[in-house]
Design brief:
The chain has about 400 residues and is an alpha/beta fold. It contains 15 helices and 14 strands.
Amino acid sequence: MAMIKAGVVVQRYGKEVVGGAETLARDVAERLNASGFDVTVFTTTARDYITWRNEYKPGESILKGVAIRRYDVVEERDIESFNSFSEAFFNSPREEKRDEEKWIRQQGPYSPGLIEGIREAQAEFDVFLFFTYLYYPTIAGMKVVNKPVVLFPTAHDEAPIYLNLMEDVFRRPEALFFLTGAEMAFVKRKFDPPHVMELVRTGLDIVDDVDEGLFKRNYLQFAPYMVYAGRIERGKGLEPVFEAYREIRTKRLVDFVLMGKQLMDIPDIEGLKYVGYVTEAEKLSAFKGAVLSVQPSPLESLSITTLESFSQGTPVLVNKNCAVLCEHIDISGGGLAYDNPGEFAEHFYMLYDKRRKARVMGLNGYDYVRQYYSWNVVIDKIKKQLKALL
């Protein structure tokens, strides 16, 4: 078979770009390219998803062997005015004719040049892979492509997925690739797409020789601790965990370590420690040394941090209201799900007091990640599907 030429379309791309769909796009692009595909990425010059400010140079470049074509964003986003527009938009009664195209344009990154670039170049490509359903490059880009299209929707139950125009977005692709069974089931219920639906999951670089002491030394962490890694903001479900921890701390000597970007006030509780940004090595070390990790978000389309915790043999307490997190727990046996502060505390005491049981759960999580989330398994599945599609 001749070398397959694949176009990858994603709103931001680069080694400084952090984000679930963006990281996934880069991982897939680099690995497909290294395994015999010829991959070109179509993206914008934006680095930051809050403003979509043009920070990279437009035009062609190469990163880790992958060709990139970048196009300027023509409208920078003011997040406060977008948020108030968005709130009014989603709160307006259904009967009113909402201007969905306007919402998508404001959501951004609005780059007509990118869409034109895809349209003009498509004859060179066999297939196009679009990453995440939510942004303008995917919604406008899929309309101009007359080659086979694969969408990695990274979808979950949130307001934008109920826009009328999303019907076309989910019915257009010849294949939809999902990261979790819960995501796939949700999209099937909502849209019943007519074409291929495949659970490919995503890969994780599983690091086995992590130094458990690194985090403890660097952050003078002497007491046993539980850990949360991610954005610290409203909507992530942290408030009930803080409430549970306030009570737990009166009965057990255990710290609660938070790492990541702080976007909300952190309550003043003895033992609650915010360490800010940490290195990748420190993060894995923190997971490895923790009694357990916490993933309290009700809205996750994958939760890499849950998988990272499993990869270090550490059990996870997850929010019972998130189908994706419950799926990880149910299949792996690598942790427990809680519904309220009382249940969180109950699960915590069980794992804290019965370390052997916690250890078994952590190893279950490790086996789960090895079986389903190692990159060679995932890329083989993607390649097989793409070849079948073509």
